């Protein structure tokens, strides 16, 4: 069960990473379009911003952080799409800066989670579970008190068959 929980955590983090990658790719597509228009015809940049607004891009931290990274510090024409993003984020009490922080925090959290999950999977593989269960099982400890010493003399497979199945949790 521990392995399954760790693998499920890895699946969940990977799914989030894939969604964030998709949002970053979309941000890069819009940044490329905006950059090309800004170089050729700065006045037409407003039309691309309008196209972007109509497409209703996801205002996720990954999308906003990537778009901001690509557009900030370039021509004055590219401040217009960032102003639109800032306005959209303002409706949910966020800002571009806060979205960039959230994206960086989530990436750090995901890296730690992946590292911990993989380390825990390695640790689980190195544990002798038979010994672990035998040491912690109250039933096992009671059976080892067998006055005739038959149970403690059995091999693991025999002891394992001797034990009752786990009781269902009600």
Quickly describe the structure.
The protein has 9 helices and no strands.
Which descriptors apply to this entry?
170 residues; mainly alpha; 9 helices; 0% strand; rod-shaped
Description:
This protein is mainly alpha-helical and 170 residues long. It has 2 domains: 2-122, no CATH class; 129-162, no CATH class. The chain has 9 helices and no strands.
- Uncertain runs with pLDDT below 50, 5 residues or more? none
Average pLDDT value?
90
How many strand units? 0
Count of alpha and pi helical runs? 9
Order of helices and strands: HHHHHHHHH
**Overall form:** rod-shaped
Distance between the termini: 18 Å
Q: What structural class do helix, strand and pairing data support? A: mainly alpha
Q: Compute the gyration radius: what is it?
A: 28 Å
Beta strand %: under 5%
Instruction: Note the main sheet.
Output: none
The figure for the number of domains is 2
The percent of residues in helical segments reads over 70%
Topology:
Blueprint: H1 2-40, H2 45-55, H3 61-71, H4 79-90, H5 96-126, H6 129-136, H7 138-143, H8 150-153, H9 156-162
Helix pairs in contact: 1-2, 1-3, 1-5, 3-4, 3-5
